C-alpha cells in the first residue's frame, strides 16, 4: 500500500461529519489530486485533498447515491481531482470495522474503477474534542475484501490534529453540510467551501484562533 497523505480540510470534514451525527452512521467520498495519479496502477501514493460528506440516514437509497456521485464526479473533474476512496463511521460506538460500516457497495464500486482506492473507517473510540492521534483506520481492497493496513496516515501539516480539535471545540461541525442536508435544502453548499476557507486561514497563520472568522 502506497503512502496516504491527508490534507487538513479532508481530515477535518471526516471528523466533523462524524461529530455532527454521533448517533448515526455516516459516510463520504475521498478525492485525490489527479495530477499525481497513474492510471490503472495499484498501491500508488495518494494525496487526499478533499472529502465530500454523503449521508447520515440515506445510506441504503441507491438513487440518492447515484445523484450524489454524479455531482461529485463532475465537480472533481473540473478541479483536477479523482474519486479515490470512501470513508464511513459506524452507528454503534464500539463498532470500528468495515463490516459494520454503511454503504460498502459504494466503496466496492470505487475500488473497481480505481485499484488504489482506500477505505477510511472512523475510530469512534478516539472521537473526542482534543484529538492527539488520528481517529481513523486505513483499509485496502485485496482479494475481494477490504483489509486493514498497518500503514499510518500522514497529514499535510503538523497542525492538522490541533486544528481539527479546535474546530470541534468551537462547534464548527454543526455547520457541515452533507448530501442529506443538501437534498433537503438545495441552497446548502455540499462542498463546504466556507469550512475550507476557515481551515485555510488557520493554516496560513499557523494559529488556532478562529473566533472572529466568518466562514459561512
From TrEMBL:
CDD domains: MPN_UPF0172 (cd08060). Transmembrane segments: none annotated. Residues 4-142 form the MPN domain. Signal peptide: none annotated. It holds the Pfam family UPF0172. InterPro entries: EMC8/9, MPN. One of its GO terms (cellular component) is EMC complex. It comes from the Eukaryota. Belongs to the EMC8/EMC9 family. This is MPN domain-containing protein.
Amino acid at each position: 500500500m502506497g503512502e496516504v497523505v491527508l490534507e487538513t480540510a479532508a481530515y477535518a470534514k471526516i471528523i466533523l461529519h462524524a461529530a455532527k451525527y454521533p448517533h448515526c452512521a455516516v459516510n463520504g467520498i475521498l478525492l485525490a489530486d489527479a495530477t499525481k495519479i497513474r492510471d490503472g496502477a495499484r498501491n500508488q501514493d495518494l494525496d487526499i485533498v478533499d472529502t465530500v460528506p454523503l449521508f447520515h440516514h440515506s445510506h441504503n437509497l441507491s438513487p440518492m447515491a447515484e445523484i450524489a456521485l454524479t455531482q461529485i464526479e463532475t465537480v472533481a473533474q473540473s478541479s483536477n481531482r479523482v474519486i479515490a476512496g470512501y470513508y464511513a463511521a459506524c452507528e454503534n460506538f464500539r463498532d470500528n470495522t468495515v463490516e459494520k460500516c454503511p454503504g460498502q457497495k459504494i466503496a466496492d464500486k470505487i475500488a473497481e474503477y480505481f485499484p488504489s482506492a482506500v477505505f477510511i473507517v472512523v475510530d469512534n473510540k478516539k472521537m473526542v474534542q482534543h484529538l492527539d492521534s488520528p481517529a481513523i483506520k486505513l483499509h485496502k481492497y485485496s482479494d475481494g475484501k477490504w483489509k486493514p493496513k498497518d500503514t499510518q496516515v500522514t497529514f499535510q501539516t503538523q497542525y492538522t490534529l490541533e486544528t481539527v480539535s479546535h474546530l470541534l471545540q468551537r462547534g464548527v461541525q454543526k455547520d457541515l453540510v452533507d448530501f442529506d442536508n443538501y437534498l433537503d435544502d438545495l441552497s446548502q453548499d455540499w462542498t463546504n467551501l466556507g469550512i475550507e476557507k476557515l481551515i485555510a486561514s488557520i493554516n496560513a497563520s499557523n494559529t488556532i484562533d478562529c473566533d472572529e472568522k466568518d466562514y459561512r
